[in-house]
Write a structure and sequence with these properties.
The complex is a heterodimer.
Chain A: H1 2-19, H2 22-46, H3 52-84, H4 87-93, H5 98-126, H6 133-160, H7 164-180, H8 193-199, H9 203-215, H10 223-247
Helix pairs in contact in A: 1-5, 2-3, 2-5, 3-5, 3-6, 3-7, 3-9, 5-6, 5-10, 6-9, 6-10, 9-10
Chain B: H1 11-14, E1 29-42, E2 45-59, E3 64-68, H2 75-82, E4 90-95, E5 98-99, H3 104-110, E6 111-114, H4 126-136, H5 141-154, H6 170-182, E7 188-192, H7 200-215, E8 219-224, H8 227-233, E9 236-241, E10 244-249, H9 251-256, E11 261-266, H10 278-289, E12 294-300, E13 303-308, H11 311-324, E14 331-335, H12 339-347
Helix pairs in contact in B: 4-5, 4-6
Classes of the chains: A mainly alpha, B alpha/beta.
Chain lengths: 251, 353
């Protein structure tokens, strides 16, 4: 179908562009790796984790949540740059479906963050994390859904507030609470009950909880199937709404 | 050389719900009553700005058609409406057999568009973008590579097409933009200010490329605020001012409407600094307007633009009339009417304003 073909075209173009400068990709890894190596020891002592392996099992989902929320929302800036450079205008004049301009880019970000997730996990494994491939795949799926959701949101904000300064403030104001309420620094299990109830309304929190639950081996828990379901629903609705917003007139 | 439109047109581009391409002899572009307003918000007040107030015109096949007008006249807005980037508030347009309002998707398949800004990522390469552009029009990958090769040869991009676009000069970048715009051999291509910001050699080269495209059978619709571009490059032009078309025709026909010669009297003396007194300018204008051989007189800062029957006989009389009142002009120049004079006659302002 045309939408699928066009999305694939935009996706491959953006990925090739990304891969053509491996230095830029490497730079995006610096922050997650730094947090991984420096923050986990703190977390281990704060959470009284019995071992580094257990500490990483607690922290890696949080790190994934932070990566998912932030990289997605800041995608809005690259969209503004693409608009200012006239790239979006040039694509809009072609028969390519306008929703594919959004979806192809979302796909590129999913690939990028999934790659970051793999690198981070490999390093964590080297430092003591134990995870089996099936659980890891599950975590990547949740991470991908997070990216879909946050990139769509980031693009919506960029289209509604096309000025870099205002957009920066807006994204920060939203990304900080969203990621904190997803437990990106300290797991929500140690937060006060009222914070946990508020976090129930945060789809990203469900993603983090699902990931952490499976990494800690509690396969039977309800959240294992609830998390992907909730995230998939919210992501789908958001992407559909964002596609429509994207298809409207943009100068 | 890349095969131009016409017999070489790919079937996928010609088919579609809108119907066949117009038969030769019919205009390829027909616009009627096109309108567009913008809402601008300043503080609390929302005002509506009518950028395009109802334009009608037609463009014939394989001609270079220009929209000439000052900045803010509505040229780019009209162009963007025709390129399906903006939704018109009213009116109709038929572009290469496709209805603009009812089937914009079909319009997109049949046109090319080159914006004033570049439209490419600096980190990408020209070749990659050419292939990608062809594929966005539905060309399969291997054929797209072939089209890219042909475009590189046609526009002489070999020397830099594999480098990153951010390293290109202005002229190189613009050549790539045009190559991107025509890679799918559209029937008609829209160019927004194609030579804005280019140095003279690049401008001349761009004009050459545009003429070459026309000679291959492509129709070109461009906007410009440069008189010489409209005059030298375009087969026919429409002069647009404040959202309305004020004149239309070939540049020669339009200039011929202004009979006689143009005499420009500059009242600023070359040896004194500063302009002459406004009172002097007014007086000179009054004297000259009353002269029988002067059809009309326009005051532009410290120069008077006179439209006379014959410059040769008019100039000595102008000198005598001004000297008699003690006014010494600094310089006198004569020329044939230009498109700026046409614009002035129709709107009361010069394009430079």
């Amino acid at each position: 179908m045309k939408l699928a073909r066009d999305t694939w075209l935009i996706f491959t173009y953006e990925v090739v562009l990304l891969v053509s400068s491996p230095v830029n990709v490497a730079i995006t890894l610096i922050q997650p790796i730094t947090y991984l190596l420096i923050f986990t020891p703190f977390l281990k002592s704060v959470m009284h984790a019995p071992s580094y392996g257990a500490a990483y099992a607690i922290y890696v989902p949080s790190l994934f949540a932070a990566m998912g929320v932030f990289s997605g929302m800041f995608a809005g800036f690259t969209l503004l740059a693409a608009i200012h450079q006239g790239v979006i205008t040039r694509c809009r004049v072609t028969p390519v479906s306008r929703a594919s301009l959004l979806l192809g880019r979302v796909g590129m970000y999913v690939l990028l963050v999934a790659f970051q997730g793999v690198v981070v996990t490999v390093i964590a494994v080297a430092f003591g994390l134990r995870v089996n491939p099936g659980d890891f795949l599950y975590a990547l799926v949740l991470l991908s859904l997070m990216v879909v959701l946050s990139v769509s949101l980031g693009y919506d904000l960029a289209l509604l507030v096309p000025r870099e300064n205002a957009l920066g403030n807006l994204i920060n104001s939203l990304a900080q609470p969203l990621s904190l309420l997803a437990g990106c620094l300290i797991p929500l299990s140690v937060a006060p009950l009222w914070v946990q109830r508020v976090a129930d309304w945060n789809p990203f929190a469900w993603g983090t909880n699902g990931m952490r639950t499976i990494l800690q081996g509690r396969i039977g828990a309800d959240v294992i199937w609830e998390a992907p379901l909730i995230m998939a629903l919210v992501a789908l609705v958001t992407v559909a709404w964002s596609s429509r917003l994207f298809s409207r007139e943009i100068a | 050389m890349t095969s131009g439109p016409g017999p070489g047109l790919q079937p996928s581009l010609a088919a579609g719900a809108s119907g066949p391409l117009p038969a030769s002899g019919d205009p390829i572009l027909q616009v009627s009553g096109l309108r567009k307003s913008y809402k601008t918000r300043h503080r609390r007040k929302v005002t509506s700005v009518e950028a395009v107030r109802g334009v009608d015109f037609a463009v014939q096949r394989a001609e270079i058609f220009g929209f000439l007008g000052p900045n803010g006249a509505g040229k780019s807005t009209t162009l963007r409406m025709l390129a399906t980037l903006l939704r018109p508030d009213g009116g109709e347009a038929m572009i290469a057999g496709a209805d603009l309002l009812r089937d914009p998707a079909q319009v997109r398949r049949r046109i090319g568009f080159v914006a004033q800004e570049s439209g490419t990522y600096g980190e990408s390469t020209g070749r990659r973008d050419l292939v990608n552009q062809a594929r966005m029009y539905g060309v399969p990958k291997s054929a797209a590579k072939g089209l890219a090769e042909a475009a590189i040869a046609a526009f002489q991009l070999e020397d830099f097409v594999d480098r990153q676009i951010k390293t290109y000069s202005g002229g190189q970048s613009r050549r790539l933009d045009v190559a991107l715009g025509v890679i799918h051999s559209p029937q008609i291509i829209f160019l927004d200010e194609p030579t804005a910001g280019l140095d003279p050699p690049s401008r001349a080269r761009m004009w050459q490329e545009v003429r070459k495209l026309r000679d291959q059978g492509m129709t070109i619709f461009l906007t410009t605020h440069y008189l010489d571009e409209a005059d030298a490059l375009c087969d026919r032009i429409s002069i647009i001012d404040a959202g309305l078309i004020v004149a239309e025709g070939t540049p020669s026909d339009l200039k011929r409407e202004i009979s006689g010669d143009v005499v420009v009297v500059d009242l600023a003396a070359p040896d004194t600094a500063g302009a002459p007194e406004p009172a002097v300018i007014l007086q000179a204008a009054k004297i000259l307007t009353e002269q029988p051989y002067v059809e009309s007189c326009e005051t532009i800062e410290h120069t008077l633009r006179l439209y006379v029957d014959g410059a040769a006989t008019a100039i000595p009389q102008i000198m005598r009339a001004l000297s008699a009142k003690g006014i010494e002009p600094g310089a006198i120049e004569t020329r044939r009417p230009s498109l700026d004079d046409v614009f002035l006659a129709k709107t009361g302002r010069t394009i430079g304003d």
